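Shall we go through a protein fold together, starting from nothing but its sequence? Label the sequence line and the structure token line clearly, so we can match residues to local backbone shapes. Would you write everything just below, so we can both look at the same thing?
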Amino acid sequence: MVKAVTELRDIIKDITSQSQKQEENSTPGYTRSKDNELEKLQDGTRLLAAQLRASGKLNKDEVRLQSVRCTDSAFELMATQSLLQVSQIIIGHARTKLADFGDFGVTEANILNLESIRAEATRLISQRNVAGGTRKSATDTLPELLTQMRDQLELVDDLIDSLIKDIEFTNVYHNMRKIIDRGGRSIPAEQEQN
């Protein structure tokens, strides 16, 4: 009996631990921060691309135009990984030809700021993915733990019936188990009458 109860406690501790992992690794805060940083990256990359496009058009530089050809609508529809790649390409192009873009408002500070935003967005994406993976892993273990707990409770039920001779105790125990089995929910009055 003691062994069965001890195993039941251990399973309940594992369930509690996995539930805490789920709670600790809730992704909404990570997602909100990541989305804010990606929005800044999108805006900064869009502005830099427009500046480089203007330079390319005025200088009739087809190579430059092709390297920064993303339109505003393309930026809006761009997936996260694509945005990271495009921003890196545009930053690289701006950095290599920085002297050519001075008349178009492109400065070293602009480029450094955009690189910083891109690095932070990348870090936040990674953090969010780790948290999401940890949460999913914890969630995936719960069904098996709950099955183990139910099996262990059934064993304890059988042991209570066979080993405990105090009828009052066994009645209280089984009444409590009915509450647990029912999940603490009551059936609406309409359904009870049917």
